[in-house]
């Protein structure tokens, strides 16, 4: 709701396929503001914490293996309704259901290789993920020059 932050991450498949820059461009052009970014390889421990809500699912081991399999681009983006806008721009979890024009709908085919992660709209999800990946001093407060044209 209103101006907020969300956690978005280009997954290892997106990095390996050279799509990371495009994902950043789409978010920038939409008007969301990048306030933190980290190119990193996720540890097993961090993967299990990040996906803790799925620990009892049959796909959990495959999911944590995948997310730790190569570098990711972890990011924090800020803006009006940033969490919901991030989810809409990502598209549905299964690329088969993701509308063309969304990141998953334009770049993905397989549920287990769906290019991008984004915080869900459940209360506290974005804050939890941001805290998991970033220290406070790794997030930058600044104004983008176009803010007065993006917002009424
Ligand atoms: P999302 O990434 O859209 O938030 P989620 O939180 O339900 O989706 O699941 C996390 C990731 O786990 C998802 O991006 C892909 C994978 N996944 C989800 N459901 C799956 C399933 N039934 N089989 C295999 N992988 C699945
Ligand atoms: Mg999720």
Automatic annotation (TrEMBL):
It catalyses: a ribonucleoside 5'-diphosphate + ATP = a ribonucleoside 5'-triphosphate + ADP; a 2'-deoxyribonucleoside 5'-diphosphate + ATP = a 2'-deoxyribonucleoside 5'-triphosphate + ADP. SMART domains: NDK. Residues 3-141 form the Nucleoside diphosphate kinase-like domain. ATP binds at residues 11, 59, 87, 93, 104, 114. It comes from the Archaea. Major role in the synthesis of nucleoside triphosphates other than ATP. The ATP gamma phosphate is transferred to the NDP beta phosphate via a ping-pong mechanism, using a phosphorylated active-site intermediate. This is Nucleoside diphosphate kinase. The active site is at 117 (pros-phosphohistidine intermediate). GO terms for molecular function: ATP binding; metal ion binding; nucleoside diphosphate kinase activity. PANTHER family: NUCLEOSIDE DIPHOSPHATE KINASE (PTHR11349). Its cofactor is Mg(2+). Belongs to the NDK family. Its EC number is 2.7.4.6. InterPro entries: NDK-like_dom (IPR034907), NDK-like_dom_sf (IPR036850), Nucleoside_diP_kinase (IPR001564). Keywords: ATP-binding, Cytoplasm, Kinase, Magnesium, Metal-binding, Nucleotide metabolism, Nucleotide-binding, Phosphoprotein, Transferase. It is found in: Cytoplasm. GO terms for biological process: CTP biosynthetic process; GTP biosynthetic process; UTP biosynthetic process. The gene is ndk. GO terms for cellular component: cytoplasm.
